[in-house]
Amino acid sequence: MIIASNVSKKFGKLKALDDVSVTCIKGECIALIGPNGCGKTTLIKSILGMVVCDSGFITFNGNNIRHDWKYRARIGYMPQIGRYPENMTIGQVLDMMKDIRGCKNEVVDEELISQFGLKDILKKRMSTLSGGTRQKVSAALAFLFNPEVLILDEPTAGLDPVSSEMLKAKIITEKNKGKLVLITSHILSELDDLISQVIYMQDGKLCFHKSITSLQEETGEAKLSKAIAQVMMKR
Amino acid sequence: MKKIIKYVIIDILRNKIVLAYTVFLLLISVTIFNLEDNSAKGLLSLLNIILIIVPLVSMLFSAIYVYNSSEFLELLVSQPLKRKTIWLSLFMGLAASMAFAFFIGAGIPILLYEATPTGFMMLGTGLLLSVIFVAIAMLAAVMARDKAKGIGVVILLWLYFSIIFDGLILFVLFQFADYPLEKIMVGAVAFNPIDLSRILILLKMDVSALMGYTGAIFKDFFGAQTGLIISFCVLITWIVIPAWLSLRKFNHKDL
A153 φ, ψ to 5°? Predict the structure, then answer.
């Protein structure tokens, strides 16, 4: 569904992405793992077209994303740090996104909005929100339009345990509907029951892309955190 | 595209600076027209104030607005929207608000007190200047990632267009006083929209006789139909080129 071929991106002298090639297939739930600054977010942002890669190309359903913009209607993106117009209220942001996506009348998935209790604080301005509430708004927006692909950049960072569980349950339901889910996270223990594949990155390079079962077999560890720790030690 | 322009304009209206600018312009223009017994004289006084304030406010406000809406831009870029649509909507929203503010603040008093060809010329150039400096500020804002640097560049650009350019022209004129520079001066004016506007308005007034031989050459060129058309084309170019360059830059910008 999403194919990245030999994607490279430099920020000044820093190589954020170095010849990265990935293939993501529908129905998979893929974890993007790697140390800080290894290029996970840059990879995600280049898939979304927010970062324009220097060389290589990315295709979505066979179309090069460089000349296409409609494909983003099929992606729900939850950024690591949600940045929203500060003087708008939550309700206004939600309405604006619905308006921009042009689906005022279509059925939208407001499950997370009600679960997170955002309905009661629709009048609050974005500038007054705490980091966790902001994160809830980002999550609600990512799932709002029933996208085929979900890209979640550290989804549970800053969320309280209850909301975090709600979000995880939501991810599992969506995954079971056959959607492609891409998650980055540093809390490996919570990825265990979510993911089916692992992409490990380091210094802008893609180290491996394996299914979770083959990773477990190779390392002999059942837990993802232990398996990754073993891989990291070896390198 | 209309939707995003709508959100940009709602946002601009909400932060009230443009409203304050409108009231300020309105106050100045009404005061000046009431102070002078002859409204043609009032227009001349208003000209100098407008040529300083309009570029400054348009540029500073637009640059700061672009930097402050970086969150909004980031949010929009991850949505199914063309970057071109996003950037042009931002430009149109800003240009429309600044032009509308000028129209209400200065345009209506001009139409009320001095609805002459000179008045219309001032209204037209004022509207164009508002849009030109929005385009230039957006170019500066997209080139410089750092907010302080971007706003600094905008202030320097304003200084250049309102003061330094004139200084350079004077310098050249004095240095080469022995040569016939009148025709070259006509060309040089094209490099500064503020000067071009000033000359266009002054020539509509009857003070151009005071400008000597250069004034006669100017009158000869800008007074004629073709000169007028060329001048307006130059002003439009001052909108199109910065807007196009900034769009090209924005298309490849990492957010």
Answer: -100, 105
Provide the domain limits for residue B239. 2-252
Number of domains in chain B: 1
CB atoms within 10 A of CB A2: 21
Minimal Cα distance from B2: which residue of A?
A: A100
Structure confidence at residue B226 (pLDDT): 86
Contact B14 A99 (CB under 8 A): no
d(CA A97, nearest CA chain B) in Å: 9
For the stretch A188-224, pLDDT in tens is 888 888 888 999 988 888 888 888 888 888 888 888 8
On whether the CB atoms of residues A152 and A78 are closer than 8 A, the answer is yes
Residue A100 has which token pair? Answer: 């921009």
Q: d(Cα A71, Cα B74) in Å, to the nearest integer?
A: 17
* Contact present, A112 and A167 (Cβ < 8 Å): yes
CA dihedral B235, B240, B242, B243 (to 10 degrees): 140
CA separation for the pair B153, B144 (Å, rounded): 9
For residue B86, what is the nearest residue in chain A, using CA coordinates? A100
CA dist B78 and A72 (Å) reads 7
Q: Report how far residue B83's alpha carbon sits from residue B61's, in angstroms, rounded to the nearest whole number.
A: 22
CB contact (8 A) between residue A85 and residue B74: no
Quickly list DSSP for A47-91: HTTSS--SEEEEEETTEEGGG--GGGGGEEEE-SS----TTSBHH
**What is the spatial distance between Cα A181 and Cα A174, in angstroms, rounded to a whole number?**
8
Give the residue-averaged pLDDT of A76-98: 88
Q: Give the pairing of strands A14-24 and A55-60.
A: unpaired
Three-state DSSP class for B114?
A: coil
**CA-CA distance, B83 to A91, in Å (whole number)?**
25
**What are the structure tokens assigned to A13, written together?**
């002298």
Question: What residues of A are in contact with residue B15 (Cβ under 8 Å)?
Answer: 87
Question: Has residue B211 got a pLDDT over 80?
Answer: no
Instruction: Name the token pair of B247.
Output: 């769009």
Write down the pLDDT at residue B123.
Answer: 93
Q: Is the pLDDT of residue B214 over 70?
A: no
Checking DSSP bridges between strand A197-202 and strand A205-211, what pairing results, if any?
antiparallel
CB contact at 8 A, B29 and B110: yes
Q: What angle (nearest 5°) sits at the alpha carbon of residue A62, between those of residues A61 and A67?
A: 100
For the record, the structure tokens of B26 come out as 């309105």
Averaged pLDDT, A81-95: 87
The gap from C-alpha A193 to its chain's centroid, in whole angstroms, comes to 17
Nearest residue to A45 via CA among A227, A184, A164: A184
